[in-house]
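To close the section, here is one more complete example, presented without commentary so you can practise reading it yourself. The ligand is pyridoxal-5'-phosphate.
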Amino acid sequence: MTSLAEPISRLGTESAFDVLSRARALEAQGKDIVHLEIGEPDFDTPRHVIEAGQQALGAGFTHYGPTPGLPDLRGAIADYVSTTRGIPVDLHNVVVTPGGKPIIFFPMMALLGPGDEAIYPNPGFPIYESMIRYQGAKPVPIPLVEERGFSFDLDVFRASLTDKTKMVVLNSPQNPTGGIIPKEDIIAIADAVRDRNLVILSDEIYSRIYYEGDAPFSIASLPGMAEKTIILDGFSKTYAMTGWRLGYGVMPEYLAIAVGRLMVNSTSCTATFTQKAGIAALQGPQDDVDKMVAEFRRRRNAFCAALNDIPGWRCVLPGGAFYAFANVKAMGKSSKEIADGLLNEAGVACLDGGGFGEYGKGYVRFSYANSYENLMKAAERIKTWAAKSENR
Ligand code: PLP
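Output:
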């Protein structure tokens, strides 16, 4: 076996896929498992979007397309982001990618190297730290504070900025906590970085999944910030299109050109029939999105109430995304032991918060992208298991 290149040893992974395969192995042995580990909507892609994809296949959208995306989709995205974030966006600022994830991978490749520092939320989506390390840059985690609805500790954030800070990653609504960074915190973050030579990667993949008040606020909307911000967004979560692999980044043109160059060297382009479906998603009726969010709200309220009913457990009501991040520190066991126990002994697949970084330890993440009935079944099992484990 040939040795792997050294940077590969620095790449991390996503524990959700690992837990999913362990849960499937238990099912193969005849165990009944409620799946609350994977972060994908359990809804179908809206009918009119599927039909647009099918029509595109029939109409010959089965060939290579332009590397940064079909001009009509890039135009539709530019209009959508311009309207929702209140900023001018041109087609040349938009790069369409196979899912939103490449808008972490490519910009980090384009911007980070040894000697650079990158600030990112912890607990947070594991790919941020993985890619920062892969590039040989220094990861600088900012702890999220449960008492602040899992927003940043702003003092720690300001103190973490140095002349080497090349990138700041924001994610709101957030994975794994469901937290939303309040507008006043976004303003404070922008004020701290406005005069610095760095780039903000604002991961807004859950931008449409929020439960109260105004839409989550984008840092790109503030004066002077669009020039230094990459917005990551896409279709996976909003339109239940995880398997179509369709996402995008909106960024200053010099970065769009660099990301395009990385696309030429890797994927060539995003599947063209998928992009046609994306146009239908953005420009067609939005009722399916509204219905999905309403159902997520109903599940969130009931499931979090059930978790808060368990003695010693505490779950802040998440403002967005579809994750409940329960504080289980009072159980006197590690969150890894708790997540493993829930899977193996209670038949509930969930994730150890420690898989999202050091500061996620002591928490367990449940995805409520599962039916109301299954969530209630899981809540019962968790409650019974927690009561039994207390006595052991
Ligand atoms: N960013 C965050 C915070 C996510 O949770 C995910 C998916 O789980 C992504 C990005 C990637 O989304 P996609 O499936 O579109 O690549």
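Once you have examined the tokens, check your reading against these statements. The mean pLDDT is 96. Residues 287-308 form the longest helix (22 residues).
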